[in-house]
Please model this.
Amino acid sequence: MFFAVSSAMISNDNGLLDKGSLYVVSTPIGNLDDFTYRSVEVLKQVQLIAAEDTRRTRILLNHYQIKTPLASYHTHNQEKKGRQLIDLLKEGKDVALVSDAGTPGISDPLYHLVQLALNDAVTIVPIPGPSALLAALTVSGLPMDRFIFEGFLPLKKRRKTRLQELSQERRTLVLYESPHRIRKTLKELHEVFGNRKAAVARELTKMHEEVMRGTLEELVALGKDKNWKGEITLVIAGCSEKER
Ligand code: SAM
Model:
């Protein structure tokens, strides 16, 4: 069903100003054609788009001829900027939040703004779309009826402990990883998890899209001399009854 985004300040029956809505808009993880009609409409109609990196978002907006003003909202300015955004919403302005790519809040900033919005009873509207975690899961070849998403593993502190805890998990595991650490992570996963099935999904929806499937041992061997580049999501089979 098509819907309209309110664009003016409207008084309710009590003569009070109606609040605007906060739209959480997912954006493509590579291929710009993966943007939904509804996302484009919402971004055209809101009064402000809060973006993690305004330069990156500008590329998407230009592609779709969206002329809505942009403001930066990221972890380092979330306190101050978050309050300013809430003030705008309370004045009746509609605001959209986007991250660099994919679904805002999935390993990027959003949680704080949602909390602020809820404290002030601002309506939050999801505009769903791409996310690397679901895209990777669907092509992994691993069970996807139940899964857990762990985001990025801790870099140092508690990394080993976290890996050991995760090794007992029965559900399929999805991790985000950087190309600089993928070799090390695959090796550690093999050491701690044993020789499970896994998939490495790289540059999904982009020109160099690649999905490598195999056991962790095979993936360690395949990745040893590979020149890892781009964005990577890892999917690993859960712990079987036998392994417990
Ligand atoms: N919010 C985003 C989402 O919904 O997918 C994720 C943001 S997180 C900061 C970025 C990480 O997502 C990357 O480091 C990579 O692990 C994963 N990622 C993003 N785009 C990807 C792609 N096209 N292919 C594979 N993994 C990707």
